[in-house]
Structures are given as structure tokens and as C-alpha cells.
């Protein structure tokens, strides 16, 4: 917090344009923005040296609160959040500099080589923050191809297909057939695994949807003959081919659990600004774009009940 206070005190003591002329400004920034502190969204550019920043004080928000999930794994903030600019300490600023402003934000001590040459703060306006959660199993098959689309809406999240009935829909299930071998492994190394996935026993059912890949009468999940670690893919009897793909090996070792499933999460945060009022600037609306921050990429794990 100290570094943010220092930053904004520094900005506040610098004067803005005072000649009353209309300023022609094109907010031509990149389509992404950055974040720091509790909570500042900002974007900078180097040609010319400019920045746009949104400081949010009310309601009190943090990046973690924006992407918080409830007990059911749903976003707590699933509706667009409105922030009133110019009230409660909320600020939207346009600034210009004498040097590249990279490193200016979110540092305890701003670089001395950068001076603000113009500092304009909107006296009104609204910011709208939208958070979206995108989940995927990253199994090599696009989510839209992992749904039978029985409801006709082309959305795998509604009435989803769950091939193995483990409670995890196929588009989030990294083991679609529930045989403890990951789908991305069972696709094989075909030129196009989506149109020509591996089908070891040639029965017309691709391995990633086949519970007995080698058709030896023993379910793949029960072919852990060397190590019972919920992964038949590392069990070899003849050292050339895994037992679950070898029709000549049909030893049964009953499985007792499903493997832990990992689900990739990407939180998408977008910000748009409406009805801003900068002194001497005519533009009133601006789309900040999408937040670029590594903290928006997470993984959750689920172990299906056996």
C-alpha cells in the first residue's frame, strides 16, 4: 500500500494542461492491461509515452476477490461490477511522460528518470469489470468436440456429456473413459489424433473412449500388473508395450481408485470505461481490454469417487 500512496501522491502534485484548449487524444493502447496493489489497473505505451490507470477504492476489491469461487466452484462475482469514477477515491487517469513509464507503476520508488508532463483525472464516469472463468482439461480435444450436444446449444457446459459417468463432464475430464490412462496419451501419435485417434484393437472405438483398449477381456483400469499407482500406462510385462495395449497379457489386478484429475482454469477479466469526463478531452468511452496477469491461470484437482 505504501508504494501506491507514494505513486499517487507524486501524480497529484503535478499539474495538468492549463491553457483551456481542446486536446486531441487517441487512446490507442494495446488490447491488454496490467494490475497491481489493491487495486490499480493500468496500461502504458512508449510511442508516445502515455498511460491510463484506474484506481479502485470503493468497493474494496483485490485481484483474488475478483476471481474467488464459492463452495460449488462458481464465481462469486459472476455479474458485471460497476465502479463509480470520481467518488470514494476511485480515479481514472490519463498521463503523459518525458520518458518510458515502464516500471513506474507498482514500485516502492518510481524511477527518477520518468517525469509526468501531463496528468488528467476524470471527474466522473463508470468502470465495468467483468470476470469470466474458462475451464478445460487440456487433453488435446477441443471442448466443443467433447459434447454430444443433445440439447442443441453447442455449449459443452450445459447438459454435458460424461462418457465414464464419474461426475466430470468430458470437456473437463482428462480421462474420458475412466480407465486411468489420460486421454492425451490414448490419442496416440497419429498425424491428426482428432480425426484419426489411436484404436489399438480396431473395434471402431478410439482408445480414449474404450475401456478395454486391447480387447483382451480385462478392463484397462485393471491391468496394473507392475505398480498399482492408478496409471496402467507405466505397467510393462514384456518391456515393449504396456500391458493395457498388449492382447497377450491379460493378468487382472483390480483397481481400487481413480487417479487425481487436473482441470485447467483461466480467469478472464475485462474492463470498459463509460461516460468519462477529462478536462479538454472529448472522448467519453474506452475499452481497457483484457487483464494480462499470471495469477489468472490456476489448476483445480478432483478425484472421482470410485
Automatic annotation (TrEMBL):
It comes from the Bacteria. It comes from Bizionia argentinensis JUB59. The lineage of its organism: Bacteria, Pseudomonadati, Bacteroidota, Flavobacteriia, Flavobacteriales. This is Uncharacterized protein. Residues 222-235 have a biased composition (Polar residues). Residues 149-168, 186-235 are annotated as: Disordered.
